[in-house]
Every structure is written in C-alpha cells, then in structure tokens.
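Listing S7. Sequence submitted for prediction.
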Amino acid sequence: MLFKILLDDCWQVECFDNETEAVYGKKPAETIPAKVPGDVHLDLLGAGIISDPYYSLNAEKCQWVSERYWVYKKTFCIDKKHFSGKCNLVFKGLDTYATVFLNGIELGKTANMFIEHRFDVSDLLQVGENEITVRFVPPLEPVSGKDTSNYPSAFDSLRLFNRKMQSSSGWDWAPRILNIGIWRSVELEFYDHGRIKDIFVRTISIDKKYAIINIDVENEFLNFDYNSKIKLLVEIFDADGISVAKKTSRQKIPMPFH
C-alpha cells in the first residue's frame, strides 16, 4: 500500500550573508515564515521586506536576494504506525542548488530545478519529532568562473550552465529575478510492497480513428517472490472521462542484477 504525508505547511526560511554562517548555524540575518510551494522573493514580499519586484525599478533593488544563502527548515512528527516498509522524502522541485538534511544527516545535493529529488529516509526517520533542513547557495555561485567564450547567448551566458528557468536571468520581456526556494510540494512516501516509478508512453501509429501506443511501466518492488507475477492494468480515458481502451497483463517480477 502507498501512503503519503504532505509536508507543505509550517516552513521557515533564514537568510545568511555568507556560506560559513549558513553551514555553522550562526545567527541568521533574517528569519521569516516560508510558503511551500513558493520561493524566497514571495516570502520576503509577504513579510514586507521587499517591494513588488515587478513594479517600476524594484527588481534592481532586490538583486541582493540571489546573492545570499537561504536555509529552509521544518519540523514534523511521525507516529510509530508508519514505520514499516520503505519511506522516501520527496521534493517535487528545488530551485536550484541545495543540500538536503534530515535530523542533521546530509541526504544529498541538488542542481536541477526541473526534476524530482527523492531520498530514502527509512533508517533516518524518528518516532516523534523530525527536522528537515534545505540549504540553498546563490544560483550563480556554482557556475561562476565558467568559460562562456564558446557559448554566445543573449543577456547572460552563465545561465546556460544552470538547469534553471532561463528567463529568471533576465529577458527582453522580464526583469532579472534569480529565484531560490522550494517551488513544488514536499512529501513523505511510505510503501510496503512496491511502487510505480515512472510511465513512458510512445505513439507507434495513429490515424483519424485508431492509434497504437506502447506503454512502459517502471516499477520498484520490495520483499517479493521473484518467481511470482504481478497484474498490470492499463486504462485510457478520453477528454470526457470515458474509457476508450483497457488492457490487463501479468508480468513476472524481474530478478534484480547488481
């Protein structure tokens, strides 16, 4: 069974002037409530620290935001009943360069705002209170010093090295606002037997009446007999919610190979 706990509420974000202060937990220059999903600029705007960056020349006045180090924190409680099977801490979107911790233990680093980041925390969760920390560095720091001479581009060549929304570096229709933050939801995902990791759909052929498609389903299994089979049901619905195709198949669970 798959069970999820949404962790979007009750975050706070701290501002540090340099990395040393952020890493060693010095007193932050500022601590404010944080909205998740969201970003630091929205939190600062909500706290009255900056003015609307899309009005007049205010964007120029808040360039300091992307030059600081920002640390998100959240505490949450877990009941003993959830401690079975496997648990992943899932970030749907982190913008962009972050180090993630649970209860002071580093889980990993991120460098791409467009993809989901998933961390196995099965052995790190505690009954009762837990704390998540997400430490962001300025978005241009990891790419500063890159040779951009062979990468001509408009507005800002360094942006090409960032897996980040390119227009945040400034465009002819948008100001330069290098966002930082947890821009999509966060959740704990518990499962006992397995989960669907991803689905890939490819169109083989199509005409006005019919289509042939190929669907690959990537799964993860826990504690399964590798001589057994699983039942896979695929059903396709049209725009009105009417089922137009359905197929069931039984597949042998693949033996893991390392």
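Caption to Listing S7: primary sequence and predicted structure tokens for the chain studied. The domain at 2-190 is CATH 2.60.120.260 (Jelly Rolls). The chain is about 5% helix and 45% strand.
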